From TrEMBL:
Taxonomic lineage from the root: Eukaryota, Sar, Stramenopiles, Ochrophyta, Raphidophyceae
Molecular function, one GO term: clathrin binding
Cellular component GO terms, alphabetical: cytoplasm; vesicle
Any GO BP annotation: clathrin coat disassembly
Region named Disordered: 1-21
Protein's UniProt name: J domain-containing protein
InterPro entries associated with the record: J_dom_sf (IPR036869)
Length: 213
């Protein structure tokens, strides 16, 4: 005896779709697996995380505005897993940025403290009443302004009589105070090195024009 066709009623959320008595939805004579028919609101925690990321200037991160309508359970599960992964990456990026910002703030504070402590004596070393000191004088007194433990062997004016000797001493000083050589040192030492490098570099330009050109 032929089986009676299933009864159909209008789907409560999708106009024009008839819900079947079977475990499925009938559309134009075809049955489909159960599907989500309502969008899920974004979780509060993920939305707050996205807003925090936006405030911190983290680009390329978007959580929310997702629509699960018409998606199968497997598709929704995959979307939700990707959203969780994205939320984890966003949280990690947010934490790393805050750590970088804090490190930069701490360094700026330490640098300002070093300027207050060493600025005057470094200016006195580099200048004499506003006039730039000669390169020989700076090299011969460099050991007096560097930090304890700096890898610099002091030289005297007697070692700097010949222009070639001055040039060698200058190049050796750059191995100690150039910014590329002090990136791993404390901010206080970096400040001293930067100021010393500035003074030596300016004096070397004058020296080369006068004695090496």
């Amino acid at each position: 005896m032929p089986r009676a066709p299933p009864t159909h009623t209008r789907h409560p959320h999708l106009p024009g779709v008839w819900a079947s008595g079977r475990n499925g939805v009938r559309v134009s004579g075809h049955y489909m697996r159960p599907q989500h028919t309502q969008p899920f609101p974004p979780p509060v925690a993920q939305q707050a995380l996205a807003e925090a990321a936006a405030r911190e200037g983290i680009k390329g991160v978007r959580i929310g505005d997702r629509n699960y309508v018409g998606k199968s359970a497997a598709a929704v599960a995959g979307m939700q897993q990707r959203e969780r992964d994205l939320a984890d990456k966003t949280a990690q990026a947010l934490q790393e940025k805050r750590q970088r910002d804090q490190a930069a703030s701490d360094k700026a504070s330490a640098y300002a403290a070093a300027a207050a402590r060493h600025g005057a004596r470094l200016t006195a070393w580099a200048e004499d009443h506003g006039k730039k000191r000669a390169l020989r004088a700076l090299l011969a007194s460099l050991h007096t302004v560097l930090w304890p433990g700096a890898r610099w062997r002091a030289v005297g004016l007697g070692d700097l009589l010949q222009p070639a000797a001055v040039r060698r001493a200058y190049l050796r000083s750059m191995m100690v105070v150039h910014e590329d050589k002090v990136v791993d040192l404390p901010p206080e030492h970096q400040y001293i090195a930067n100021r010393a490098c500035e003074g030596l570099t300016e004096a070397y330009k004058i020296f080369t024009e006068a004695e090496l050109s």
